[in-house]
């Protein structure tokens, strides 16, 4: 187990270094291509409630995805860390790009929804689609996250909530840059 954790840590470091070296123009063009592929998917077309995320530096730019979701009148939910030690996050509603631009920044420098009772939680809204970030993905739909477990924990809760309500689990789609796709 220690060897696996060390290998994951080394892979994360390597992939992040490669992404950090990518020119901004390449990140923007790849981000646009990924967004177009996402928009062509049936689960995007049919979704009315979408969880997404705000990009970190060196990641795929999610602004085109967020803009398209709002333009299509989809409800958008974004992550907010609730408890770092417990690796707990919520996905709460964002109302527009202007709303997101006004969000405070997290400890990681990511725009994060404020603690506001008027924002619905994605688990209560029963979202249709979750757009998932990752450090790396493989061709068998395997995902290597940042290592903290926030998404793994939240996705497990989302699946459990859907099962308890006897409704379909939300579809998940990982998005990333080409350098983050492993064989």
Topology of this structure?
Elements: H1 2-20, H2 24-39, H3 42-46, E1 49-51, H4 63-71, E2 75-83, E3 88-94, H5 97-101, H6 122-125, E4 129-132, E5 136-138, E6 143-144, H7 150-164, E7 171-174, E8 181-182
Parallel strand pairs: 1-2, 1-4, 4-7, 5-8
Antiparallel strand pairs: 2-3, 5-6
Q: In CATH, what is the class?
A: Alpha Beta
Instruction: Sketch the topology as an H/E string, one letter per element.
Output: HHHEHEEHHEEEHEE
Largest sheet: 5 strands, mixed
Quick one: CATH superfamily?
NagB/RpiA/CoA transferase-like
Name the beta content range. 15-25%
Radius of gyration: 16 Å
Task: Identify the CATH architecture.
Answer: 3-Layer(aba) Sandwich
Characterize the structure shown.
The radius of gyration is 16 Å and the shape is globular. It contains 7 helices and 8 strands; from the N terminus they run αααβαββααβββαββ. The model has no long low-confidence stretch (mean pLDDT 92). A hairpin with a 4-residue loop joins strand 5 (136-138) and strand 6 (143-144). The protein has helices at 2-20, 24-39, 42-46, 63-71, 97-101, 122-125, 150-164, and strands spanning 49-51, 75-83, 88-94, 129-132, 136-138, 143-144, 171-174, 181-182. The strands form 2 sheets. The protein has a 5-stranded mixed sheet with strand order 3-2-1-4-7, with helices on both faces. A 3-stranded mixed sheet has the order 6-5-8, with helices on one face. The protein has a single domain (1-180), classed as NagB/RpiA/CoA transferase-like (Rossmann fold), CATH 3.40.50.10420. The longest helix has 19 residues, at 2-20. By secondary structure, the protein is of the alpha/beta class. ATP binds at residues 8-12, 143-151. Substrate binds at residue 59.
